[in-house]
Amino acid sequence: MDLGSYLIQMRAERGYSQRDLAEKSGVSPAEISRVESGKRQKPSPAVLRAIAETLVISYPFLMQLAGYIDDPEAGENSRETPETEAVFRNEQTGEIVDAAGGAREMLSRDPAWANMAFRASRELSDEDRKMIMVLANEYLNRKQGSP
Asked: Which of 55, 106, 102 is nearest to 82 (CA)?
């Protein structure tokens, strides 16, 4: 899979238009279009990081698709797929942590919430999970915008 096709797929799965992705990531709509169309095959690492954080996908995998990283162990067919390598921002340090680290932190912080998230991921339909994600993102965005 090429970088542009992968980003189109991930953006569509999250229900974002190119403009939505541009606004949320801080990357220009023109640059999003160039990357997705293949006109920009090797966007800057900063652009890839912003897109990865916004779509909650693997930054290292995007770096590999763009040709910055040549690691056969991190490819699409490896044990950990891009979906399981999702990244999260550590609230205290601002650093990116892997999904397993984020899950461990969530479990240690609030086991009931971790269990609920796990159950939701297994038992709810795609539509229901998307609705919960939209609501949670709206709530988080409101909380971040408040003093």
From this structure: 55
Buried b (16+ CB within 10 A) or exposed e, 19-41: eebbebbebeeebbebbbeeebe
The sign of the CA dihedral 88, 59, 10, 101 is negative
- pLDDT, tens digit, for every residue of 33-75? 999 999 998 998 889 989 999 999 988 889 889 988 775 454 4
CATH fourth-level superfamily of 3-74: lambda repressor-like DNA-binding domains (1.10.260.40)
CA distance 14 to 99: 18
**CA atoms of 83 and 129, how far apart (whole Å):** 15
Q: Where are the domains of the chain?
A: 3-74, 110-147
* Rounded distance between C-alpha atoms, residue 54 and residue 69, angstroms: 21
8 Å CB contact between 57 and 86? yes
Contact indicator for 67, 41 with CB cutoff of 8 Å: yes
Confidence (pTM): 0.51
Separation of alpha carbons 109 and 112, rounded Å: 9
